[in-house]
Specification:
two-stranded antiparallel sheet, 1 helix, alpha+beta, 4 strands, Pemi-like Protein 1, Chain: D, single chain
């Protein structure tokens, strides 16, 4: 992402700002803008009902996968003797 520079411009009676491609949201994304001093914070509006439905679907998908089978026991890792490293 990094730092991007752009300029404000007039669009009708409003001051507008073009978001560079690297930080832009998709077209028609509803956002909230909060100003704190010189800092503007732009966030997409989250539809709580859609987020809840998505989470419910995720839980259902995870339950459909089922519990893992037998857990394999790993062999101990043998570290080579490398004098001078520790």
């Amino acid at each position: 992402m990094g730092v991007h520079e752009t300029k404000t411009f007039m669009s009708g009676n409003s001051v507008a700002l073009r978001l560079p491609k690297g930080v832009a949201y998709p077209v028609d994304t509803q956002v909230t803008i909060e100003r704190t001093g010189d800092v503007l914070t732009i966030r997409p509006v989250v539809d709580a009902a859609a987020a809840k439905d998505k989470l419910i679907q995720l839980v259902a998908d995870l339950k459909a996968i089922g519990r893992p089978g037998e857990i394999e026991e790993r062999k101990p890792i043998e570290f080579p003797d490398r004098p001078g490293l520790y």
